[in-house]
Backbone:
């Protein structure tokens, strides 16, 4: 037998290292990334409390949190959050379906490539926000146009990564699969798509942040619900605490979307190197 | 009728600048059932091209190529290919990689498990069934690749420099094991290599291919007793074969 698996010795080393730390040190090490943001927050709070800044322009962190609590308690927050998340999720999944579908078609058929590739290249660089008025004219200012605008924004990273992923599959791996009897649909479903999956999922992860960015823009432009609307509406009536609370929620939304995408990516690609 | 019959096979393709490249020309070879044939020749002489043609992975330009009496038109479940780069499916475990062929042919799961279990034992990978390829060394990956090829129970195994990327020791071990596997699996092997000693050690016949366009220069019968062992490497006969083949290949460069 040649060579044993390299990683076998690693876990023991980790256990020994962990023993050297007291639980408190371990906790501190874990939290060290929180240090500088926390310091900023404290400084912010102190500056506002000392009256160095007018709280109307920049409310203290504690009052933002208090406002957030009130919003949660009255239910206003959940209503807006539900609308926002629905729009983002619908837009995102529609884009995933279309993006992967069109991507596979373009990568798999020369005819589709000739038909769709120029269109994709032409529409891709156009700013999503530039075409929002067109969507409003075509689909009204309701949820349909909002979802479709988010779809437009999320579609391109997904479609481009799907095409690149399939085209990037090692031609020799395809030959190996063919020599084992994989042809046609089986070759696609059992070899090409799994092989391209890391690249496709990267595109899908990039698209999650696109969905939140676009959601905010669309809701601020034209909506009567959603966190984006809540923020812009608060700004209009100079309710700065509410405005900051909404911005905090939107940041958390973007952050958690990316985290969820990352967890799924890692789960699916457990086999992949460097994951 | 030979088991694999190539007569006046030629293969040409176009490169990026659209120039015609003749990889093989006038390649004529009869392979008998259960023979172990090694193919050597200078780099880029088209010896690998012949394997791809025999595997049905690429169409020939002209000539006749027949496998068990029928012209080769596409991949045949009775033949399997092993590549230098292993080319395992990285998202499948060792066991799933090996069961890929039988799975495509709708072999029921319990029978698949039986086949893969037997093969894992044969290539000495017990305990690694549920590992992923990137957790294995190169030698172990190539063992999996060989087992994966054998899982379809092929009559013909086409090996394209399978041990080319391995270190010398692993290479020697795998050569010995391949001969054992070949005897157990009762199959025919076409084995392309750069190593003259490997070619002599493994083969019943060594096919020497000339530089591009590849044609057969000579087919040398290796009259060494089987089973073969590593001691043979230093026997006068072995060294004589090596010298002879080396002279013939160097003559071409």
Residues:
């Amino acid at each position: 037998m040649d060579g044993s698996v390299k990683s076998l010795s690693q876990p023991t080393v980790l256990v020994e290292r962990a023993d050297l730390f007291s639980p408190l040190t371990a906790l501190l090490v874990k939290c060290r990334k929180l240090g500088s943001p926390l310091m900023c927050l404290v400084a912010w709070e102190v500056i506002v409390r000392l009256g160095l800044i007018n709280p109307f322009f920049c409310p203290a962190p504690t009052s933002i949190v208090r406002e957030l609590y009130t919003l949660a308690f009255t239910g206003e927050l959940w209503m807006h959050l539900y609308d926002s998340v629905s729009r983002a999720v619908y837009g995102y999944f529609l884009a995933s379906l279309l993006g992967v579908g069109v991507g596979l078609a373009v990568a798999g058929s020369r005819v589709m490539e000739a038909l769709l590739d120029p269109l994709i290249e032409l529409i891709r660089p156009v700013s999503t926000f530039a075409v929002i008025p067109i969507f409003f004219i075509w689909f009204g200012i309701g949820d349909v146009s909002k979802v479709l605008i988010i779809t437009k924004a999320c579609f391109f990273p997904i479609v481009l990564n799907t095409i690149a992923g399939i085209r990037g599959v090692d031609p020799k791996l395809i030959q190996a699969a063919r020599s084992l009897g994989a042809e046609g649909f089986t070759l696609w479903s059992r070899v090409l798509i799994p092989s391209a999956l890391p690249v496709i999922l990267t595109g899908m992860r990039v698209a999650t942040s696109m969905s939140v960015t676009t959601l905010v823009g669309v809701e601020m432009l034209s909506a009567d619900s959603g966190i984006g609307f809540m923020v812009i509406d608060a700004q209009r009536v100079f309710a700065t605490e509410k405005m900051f609370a909404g911005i905090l929620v939107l940041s958390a939304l973007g952050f958690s979307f990316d985290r969820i995408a990352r967890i799924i990516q890692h789960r699916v690609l457990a086999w992949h190197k460097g994951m | 009728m030979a088991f694999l019959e190539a007569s006046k096979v030629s293969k040409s393709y176009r490169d990026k600048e659209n120039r015609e490249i003749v990889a093989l020309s006038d390649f004529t070879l009869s392979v008998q059932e259960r023979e172990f044939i090694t193919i050597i020749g200078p780099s880029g002489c088209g010896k690998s091209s012949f394997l791809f043609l025999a595997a049905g992975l690429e169409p020939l330009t002209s000539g006749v190529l027949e496998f068990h009496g029928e012209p080769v038109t596409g991949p045949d479940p009775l033949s399997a290919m092993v590549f230098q780069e292993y080319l395992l499916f990285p998202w499948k475990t060792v066991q799933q990689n090996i069961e890929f062929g039988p799975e495509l042919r709708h072999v029921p799961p319990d029978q698949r498990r039986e086949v893969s279990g037997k093969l894992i034992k044969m290539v000495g990978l017990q305990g690694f069934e549920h590992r992923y390829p990137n957790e294995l060394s190169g030698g172990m990956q190539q063992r999996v690749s060989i087992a994966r090829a054998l899982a379809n129970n092929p009559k013909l195994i086409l090996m394209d420099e399978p041990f080319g990327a391995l270190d010398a020791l692993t290479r020697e071990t795998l050569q010995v094991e391949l001969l054992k596997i070949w005897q157990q699996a009762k199959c025919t092997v076409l084995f392309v290599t750069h190593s003259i000693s490997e070619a002599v050690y493994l083969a019943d016949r060594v096919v020497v291919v000339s530089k591009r366009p590849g044609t057969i220069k000579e087919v040398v019968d290796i009259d060494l007793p089987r089973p073969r062992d590593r001691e043979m490497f230093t026997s006068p006969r072995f060294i004589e074969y090596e010298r002879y083949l080396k002279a013939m290949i160097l003559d071409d460069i």
Notes: Residues 184-221 of chain A form the longest helix (38 residues).
